[in-house]
Amino acid sequence: MVVALGCLARLAAAQRFGDSGILEFCLTRARVRIAAISTEGRSDVNPSASALSQPATKRAFNFNAGPAAIPLPVLERVREELLDYRGTGMSVMEMSHRSAEFEAINEHTEKSLRRLIGIPEDYAVLFLQGGGSLQFAMVPMNLYLPGKPVDVLHTGSWTSKAMEELKKLATYRLAASTEASKFMRVPRADEITLAPDASYVFMCTNNTIDGTEWNETPATGAVPLVADMSSNICSRPLDVRQFGLIFSGAQKNLGPSGVTVVILRRDLAERAGDKVAKILQYRTHMKEHSLYHTPPTFAVYMMGLVLDWIEAEGGLAAIGKRNASKAKLLYDAIEASGYYQCPIEHDSRSRMNVVFRVAGGDEAIEKKFVQEAEAAGIIGIKGHRSVGGMRASLYNAVPPEAVEALVGFMRDFERRKG
Amino acid sequence: MVVALGCLARLAAAQRFGDSGILEFCLTRARVRIAAISTEGRSDVNPSASALSQPATKRAFNFNAGPAAIPLPVLERVREELLDYRGTGMSVMEMSHRSAEFEAINEHTEKSLRRLIGIPEDYAVLFLQGGGSLQFAMVPMNLYLPGKPVDVLHTGSWTSKAMEELKKLATYRLAASTEASKFMRVPRADEITLAPDASYVFMCTNNTIDGTEWNETPATGAVPLVADMSSNICSRPLDVRQFGLIFSGAQKNLGPSGVTVVILRRDLAERAGDKVAKILQYRTHMKEHSLYHTPPTFAVYMMGLVLDWIEAEGGLAAIGKRNASKAKLLYDAIEASGYYQCPIEHDSRSRMNVVFRVAGGDEAIEKKFVQEAEAAGIIGIKGHRSVGGMRASLYNAVPPEAVEALVGFMRDFERRKG
Fold this sequence. Notes:
By secondary structure, chain A is an alpha/beta fold. The first copy, chain A, has twelve helices and 14 strands.
């Protein structure tokens, strides 16, 4: 199935922002689209050539949990620049990371992230490798103060993975856990007991596998709050000052896998002891503006394009509103049906990852659901193997039209099997 | 300037190999080229569309030291598949790393590397993140046996960086060093003194910055030899059995930056103590076939395409022969001129990174050389800031035509300034 999105809204957004980069971005997209229309159905155009220049490619309704959907205009821009980045005669991935061109890309991506989120100057922005999983180790290596256990807010599979590394590298305490509720909600404020002298508090703001999300950030006073935001960073407005350190793999809301964003209060980088490997110290990368060693240049470039796109869409406030309405559409359809059900408590439901089951949790029917959805071009809705059922991930780049298609399919499936 | 390469040789190579994947790869490329020719100069084709489908894009003569040139047919293939990978309706970077499609890509890349190099079954192949710089830390974390100092063969900037991490994580000994010769050669066999009970011996097979390369691999007996092959892996045939562990960032001969190849004898993965972070243990990734956490999926996919390309070019023997003749062309031109000089001893000269100066090492003239070369589309030949002068990196994807263009430019420059 073909997902076709207009560019007019984006153009309007760009004009509102008065950003010529974004405007150019949109205009390029419009040109490509016009070119496509003008060659469509022309029998005198060589078919191979027109296949290449054809943006109306078959595109799936992509609900993957990550790596996940990338905005179509970003992919189109990447395709355009792939063999020759703005007249350099090279692809971005063929450029030295020490070249003026790549340094400009690196800086553009950092500045865009700072502007979009509103990151204060006393916070550093780093682009690293290794994903959230390496951060589970780097955070204690850099921030743990011996004798001061880390306070963990345990909310499922990912905080569990983080604790596996904490066990090796530090000591920790459960400041709250919803394991007894099978992680179907996040802790309530009155369930959290924080130690005043913890090295830091660790949390995961959105639990991709479990389908829960924190709607209020716990206040941790003088103790720095460290958040794994891998699956909801840049999905709505964010107050960085509530956190000491935020990390996120890019592969859900920010771009392709292979680059990890770390936002940290600069003073915290000084905690690491000298015995920590240099490559694993935040201050190494802070000093070198993420260019201490060869960065994943192409992923950094793509993240910059995704950030441009978010800005053209209206920034975090607008994207947050759209994400909320996408999630509402799906949760409402589940509630209204009586046939589907979402096991997650209302206040803890994630706007990013909607988990649901067919009533009674019949696994054979759920298998059929996933298969038939796939045949209809609806991809990536099988639940994680550890929880079963279905899961639809509604990251920034998933258009409302995709959610409408899913809801339509669900109604149809219910009519046929319910 | 435009670098145009024929596909006939590649087609012949593919037929010789009887590999239908490679054949398809070449045929696709031929089709794209034919399409380009048939639309070239047609005024009735929409210009935007033809710009997109036009493979005869401006391409630089790219001598970057890394990230570096990618084979043009690989970039063309990536561009073709960017919005819809083989009918999935998704880009490779939009797919789950747990999907059947990506698992096939991951396996294809591993198998191609195994076949191309001839990697025995008792060696694991891992695709990690963090480049050679993270390996400088991971190797001692996993392979160091307390009380058994690492033997280092010190040959320049990169072994020096490796020692910075060794200092923090292990103890080491200089088993040889050419620092007194300003790293203008690698150690001779009789200069190396190895301890029989070292944890391992560490070397860098090609020194990107210094312009030297080992032409014989030192015999280390029962002590595992660990090699940083970041800048010459897959540039010529390789006997894996001489090594305990080989690592290499992809960004020179294998693809874009962001993925790191590790080839290690499986038994060595068992050395790591339990206190090593799980994400930093080789055995974690070995057990999970490089899918323990989200891999840099797009870089793994591209590496697979680059390996297909190497195979279609005739494999490591053929590519090694071509690399030798490219290097000979440039070194001979330097020797013959009297105007240029290469400071590196003959037996240690790298076939990957050719460093040279203008006679007398006049920095003002060298600056002019680099500027005028750039104006002529010859990119990336400024020497590393730590050694000065010029450096041309001649990795696999740099075509002989590019070296001819450089040599032609050098002659012309000499005539004008010499």
